[in-house]
Amino acid sequence: MKIRLDRTICDGFGVCAKYAPGYFSLDDWGYAALIGDGTVAEADRDAVMRALMDCPVHAITELGERIFPAASLPLTEADDPAEHLKTEENEAEWGFTR
């Protein structure tokens, strides 16, 4: 896992340094700074994810490849979304009228 901190968004709440002090430090004004290059060890993943999720201004982002569930994969030819389109011909089925 790799993370990025956008210091221009940070409002200095300090939540990140509270949950993951090995990855975030606070400067003299209370704004966060990333310690290291953003690479997170597997053992620290939960603490860093908590800091990421609890950041009130979403200044921390996770970098890398996303794995999407099978439901969001592209449709095949057999799964034609036009089959379920609401049209005038099937308006009684959908319960709408003009």
From TrEMBL:
One of its GO terms (molecular function) is 3 iron, 4 sulfur cluster binding. Its cofactor is [3Fe-4S] cluster. Pfam families: Fer4_15 (PF13459). It comes from the Bacteria. Keywords: 3Fe-4S, Electron transport, Iron, Iron-sulfur, Metal-binding, Transport. InterPro entries: Fe-S_cluster_ET. Residues 78-98 are annotated as: Disordered. This is Ferredoxin. It comes from Mycobacterium lentiflavum.
